[in-house]
Amino acid sequence: MKEKKSCSHALLIFAGAAFGGFLSGHFWTSSSSAMAAGRHPKTITAEKFILVDSNGKQRGTMQVTENGMARLTLSDPNGMDRAELRVAEDGSAGLGFFDPEGRKLAIFGEGTDGRAGIRIFGAEGKERAVFGSLPTGESALSLYDANTGLARAGFGLGAKGDPALVLLDQSGAVRTELGLRSDGRPGLALTDGQGKVIAGIPENQSSTGANQ
Predict the structure, then answer these.
(1) Cα–Cα dist 58/77, whole Å
(2) Cis ω for the linkage preceding 135 (within 30 of 0)
C-alpha cells in the first residue's frame, strides 16, 4: 500500500492489510448420482464457486487460489467488485469495500503479528483516516489532508496509556505536540517544522520528551 509520511514518536500508527485482484480457479460440479437419486449433497467440495443472478450474470466468487488465499468476492450488476473478504495462507485476514469505479472505500485488516487496522478512503482513492493498534498496547487515529494525502493530525495512546495529540502542517511536518505522561505530567511543544522546539511547557522539554 501507499506509504504516508508519519511521526513515530507521535504514535501515528499505520496498520492494515494488502488487497489485490481476483484469480480464477477450476469449478467442480456436485455428484451427478446424488442429484439423480433426488438427494441434495450435505457437503460440496470444490476449488471455486461462482454466484450468478437470474440472468446468469456473475455476481460473486468463492475460491482458494494457487497461493493458498481463501477469497470471497461480491460484485454489482455492472460486474465491478464491491466487497472482498480474504484470508491468506499465513493466517492474516482482510475485508475491503470498493466504489463503482473499483477504488478503495474502506479496508479492515488483521495480521498474524497481532496488528489490526482500519483505513478509510475518499474521492480518487485517497486515504482519509487510519485507525490502528499494536499487540504491545499502542493504538492511534490519524487523519489525512484530502488534497495532498499527507497526515495532518494524529491522536494516540502509548502502551502505558499515555495519550498524545499531534498536529502537522501542509508539508506533513509536526508543528504541535500535546502529551500526557503516564505519571500524569502534561507537556506541550511547538516546533519549527524541522524538529526543533521553539516553545513549550515546560520550556526546557524536548520535542520527544512531550510524549514520554
Answers:
(1) 8
(2) no
Let me know: does 85 contact 101? Beta carbons within 8 Å. Answer: no
Task: Determine the residue type at 149.
Answer: G
CA distance 206 to 209: 5
pLDDT computed for residue 98 by the predictor: 93
Could you give phi then psi for residue 52, rounded to 5 degrees?
Answer: -125, 160
For residues 58-73, give the mean pLDDT: 92
pTM of the model: 0.69
Q: Would you call 211 helix, strand, or coil by DSSP?
A: helix
* CATH tag, 8-17+44-152: 3.90.930.1
Q: Which of 16-30, 49-63, 186-200 has the highest mean pLDDT?
A: 49-63
- For 102-151, give the secondary structure using H, E and C: CCEEEEEEECCCCCEEEEEECHHHCEEEEEEECCCCCEEEEEECCCCCCE
Give the residue extent of every domain in the chain.
8-17+44-152, 160-212
